[in-house]
Amino acid sequence: xxxxxxxxxxxxxxxxxxxxxxxxxxxxxxxxxxxxxxxxxxxxxxxxxxxxxxxxxxxxxxxxxxxxxxxxxxxxxxxxxxxxxxxxxxxxxxxxxxxxxxxxxxxxxxxxxxxxxxxxxxxxxxxxxxxxxxxxxxxxxxxxxxxxxxxxxxxxxxxxxxxxxxxxxxxxxxxxxxxxxxxxxxxxxxxxxxxxxxxxxxxxxxxxxxxxxxxxxxxxxxxxxxxxxxxxxxxxxxxxxxxxxxxxxxxxxxxxxxxxxxxxxxxxxxxxxxxx
Length: 276
What we know:
Elements: E1 3-12, E2 15-25, E3 30-34, H1 41-49, E4 56-61, E5 64-65, H2 71-76, E6 79-81, H3 94-99, H4 103-106, H5 110-115, H6 117-137, H7 153-164, E7 171-175, H8 183-195, E8 202-206, H9 210-216, E9 219-224, E10 227-232, H10 234-239, H11 241-248, H12 251-274
Parallel strand pairs: 3-8, 3-9, 6-7, 7-8
Antiparallel strand pairs: 1-2, 1-4, 4-5, 9-10
């Protein structure tokens, strides 16, 4: 059930966002993708989920190519995702946000639920029970009947992850799940995501919060300017001189930034004195 990137490329005209990236993500582990802004992290997630087309190379799941498939075909292959910006059905309840995920697989049985009421009631009860179990896992059961748009921001983040789990995905893609969360919420999220580690699932997390990444992930891929810069364990990533350089720059870079800032302050000071 390994996810494999083979010489992956994404290009927008003359701009190359992803340049010849090859790596793989094994089940049973939580994989992180990190890198400075614009490094191509979310682009990798969007290509895997089918939101972006692939310009070159291939994405494979169990040896089957995902690139070129439609988004719903990729979802039916066992891939689920969340987004940087929350995309809940705001006017549906939290429970309904999960229940709606059953529609693609059960729509063709709808006639049976209508024409055979006992069967219909049983299926509704089964779906509701399964969804409530997921809500309880994320401590969202008290919000089951509340409109999703009325939930506190941190609970909405949890609800979106909960919704992604309804179909029991083999691949779970999380795009900046901690964005906008406070420290307490991030700690809670980290613990919940750790519990989702499973030998039957590939988990890939794109995240800027380094504390979360280092505490949660078993393997980390570091992107820089659309290229694969480094990959390894959290300890190996932290010890990498290449990673430190990409994030912090050289001593000369830092000196140049400091000099530019001082020059700017001096310029502003001169202008201030020239005002009447």
